[in-house]
Amino acid sequence: MDLLYTVQQQGGVPAHVYILFEHKSYADRLTSFQLLRYLVRIWERMLRQGEPLAPVIPLVFYHGVERWNAPRSFAELLVTPDALAAYTPHFAYELLDLSAIPEDDIKGEVMLRAVLLAFRSVLRPNVGVRLFDMVRMLSELTPERSALQYIETLLRYLIAAPSDLTIEQIRTVLETVGKEKQSMLISPAAQEWLEQGREQGREQGLEQGLEQGKRQLLLDLLTYRFGEPDEAQRAALEACNLEQLSAVSRVLLDADSAAEVLLNIRKILAADAQ
Predict the structure, then answer these.
(1) pLDDT value at 32 more than 90
(2) Is 185:148 a contact under the CB 8 Å cutoff?
(3) CA 91 to chain centre
C-alpha cells in the first residue's frame, strides 16, 4: 500500500512524497528486492499518469515473534566488487519492528493501541489472554456501534490468522467484558454464530464456523490488496480446509499479485493431496 503526501519545499513549491507500506509477519531476507519491485511499479504509474517522478519512502511493518534480522538495504543482497558499486541500486527502508517493543510501551489512541497489540499478539501463544485487553480497549470507543464493529473486525482477524484462539476463549472474553460494561459487545448475528458453535458442541461444528470466518476474511483481504477475486481464486479458497486456510493467511500478506496468491493456494492444496 502506498500513500501520497504533499510537502512544502523551500521557495514555496509543493512536492509529492510517497510512503510505501509493506507488511511482514516473518523476517524475509528478500524484502529489499520486493520493495524495489514495488518502487518501480509506483514510478511507472507516475509516468503513465503524466506525473513527475517523486521520492518513495519504504516502511516495513513487522509483527513476527523473533527480532527482524533481514538485510535493511538492497545493496546487502548483492555480492558486488567495489569497482562495480556504482552500478548497484542503493536504497534502504524504514522498519517498525513490533517484536522489539514491549507491550507496556505501546502507547497512543485506543484504536492504535488495540491494532498494534493485535498484530503483536496474533502469532504468539495465549492470544486469548491478550484478547481481554484488546476488547476492553475497543469497548471504550464511542459511539457504541463503532465499538461493536471494531470488536467484530478484531475477532475476524484473529480467527483468520494462524493463532491458537478458540471459540470458547472468545465467548469467555465477550461475556466477562460485556458484564463489566453492561452491554453486548458483538452484533446479534455474530452472537448467534458463537452460540451455534457452543450448542453444537462438536469439533466439526466449531471447525466449520472457524472456516467460514477465516475464508471470509481472506476474501476481504484479497479484495483489499488486489481487487475483486475472480472465480478461480474463490474456488481455490473454497476448497481449503481450516488448516490450509491458516497456511494461506501466511502467504497472502506477502504476495505480490493475485496470480501469486492463486498459485500459492494451489501449491498448498496439491501438497496436502499427495
Answers:
(1) yes
(2) yes
(3) 25
